[in-house]
Amino acid sequence: MSTPPSTRTVLLRRGEVHSPADPFATAMVVEAGHVAWVGSEGAADAFADGVDEIVDLDGALVTPAFTDAHVHTTSTGLALTGLDLTAARSRAEALALVRDHAAARPTDRVLLGHGWDAARWPDRLPPTRAELDEATGGRPVYLTRIDVHSAVVSTALLDLVPGVADRAGYDPEGPLTRDAHHAVRAAALAAVGPQQRTEAQRAALRHAASLGIGSVHECGGPEISSEDDFTGLLDLARSEPGPRVAGYWADRDIERVRGLGALGAAGDLFVDGALGSHTACLHEPYADAAHTGTAYLTADDVAAHVVACTEAGLQAGFHAIGDAACAAVVDGMRAAAEKVGLARVRAARHRVEHAEMLTPETVAGFAEFGLTASVQPAFDALWGGEEGMYADRLGADRARTLNPYAALLKAGVPLAFGSDSPVTPLDPWGTIRAAAFHHTPEHRVSVRAAFTAHTRGGWRAVGRDDAGILVPGAPADYAVWRTDELIVQAPDDRVARWSTDPRSGTPGLPDLTPGAPLPVCLRTVVFGQTVFVRPDE
């Protein structure tokens, strides 16, 4: 994750610096890639003669750079540079986009697209294989559903995967899930050449930097990407200025994980699938399907992996969405703690991705075992509410229990926010807004708590308590924003009124009320190096 620090000394002044070291700071000095000082405008004069550069903020806001704690970088880049179906409002519209894309890319060996969501279409039906064959002229095509846990494909792509019809999750007409999906995904991604892959990674990191994101946690794995994809991304991040990349490889082979240079055998190590694809593992059947989803790992599997990682000094981590899957993680953690000791398990900072269907018992388990909840508030913004996909899949009562961020914080569970891009877009301020204005009011957290989860939370999730915050000694990873008046927003109005009082010493943040304009990133800096400057600024 390391990148060389800048050797320049820079004074930023005449702005608003979001720092707990001085809630009223207007200036900051950066030296050798670290924050050297934060303070008032008057005190900044003492530094003016000894710096290499003075940046006049002209009232802009300076915050720690964001960390997106769950990203699929190459897929994000391919979505940015390829076929994006997230805006398609119907099956016919999606097929028209596929047809246009195929015509525009006559030499591509495989056509890749992402983001269709039939649950939001009038007929709620995904494109059929025959329709894709017609739209592409019989070419190989791979189109992932928005949750990336299922895909529709053409006949020509199926022909590249011998025996696919015998794999679990195969459907002769509908979307592919489980092993069949993994097999066609591997075939589709294998057709992407190294140059196209690197271009996609570079595009994704550039886009992240333009949004004030200074670090991403890459969640790779043998069922998601390839080893070349993973190591190529880590090499790219080390060789070019841009956001830091912390790599997780979802594999139970500890030596393989070490050899790839991953921080942990974690990320999307699947305990279950996803709600949209009916593959999240539930205690009770789906409201719209007569089954309880898919379990990929048992509590015993979880325990064995956690023990192996803890003893190897690596982070373990799991993808768990359904209530049965989250319970399996907690049960596995308990068994691991009994074997290697609770203190060692807690010290390892193991993590769980998504963690959507939690009960009070599993929340307590997360707290007991020191698990980081790596969560995606945009999921609720996209699928929550009385009319959303969650309610379709689970019924309104169960849907209202999902993504209980306030309960996690109250229990002392560390939160790290991310996007799961390309499932939802890279959008840090939108993510904070989604957590602060959750569809279910009792799950809402303050903007300040959400901001911390999207900055310092991501650093803590990789074992760093000294970063993601603008205080002397911290890495100089920061972003500069054009925004309106700074305020304090909290779910409880009494707290908000108290926090706005200057005597509280609470630094303000932008107004994220739904409908208010989000801050615009002017500059992003990583370890003192500028990695993005907004054009014409």
Automatic annotation (TrEMBL):
Broad EC category: hydrolase
Annotated GO MF terms: hydrolase activity, acting on carbon-nitrogen (but not peptide) bonds
Swiss-Prot/TrEMBL keywords: Hydrolase
UniProt key word Hydrolase: yes
InterPro entries membership: Amidohydro_3 (IPR013108), Metal-dep_hydrolase_composite (IPR011059), Metal_Hydrolase (IPR032466), YtcJ-like (IPR033932)
Annotated Pfam families: Amidohydro_3
Annotated EC: 3.5.-.-
Start and end residues of each Amidohydrolase domain: 53-532
PANTHER family: IMIDAZOLONEPROPIONASE, PROTEIN LONG AFTER FAR-RED 3
Name by which UniProt lists this protein: Amidohydrolase
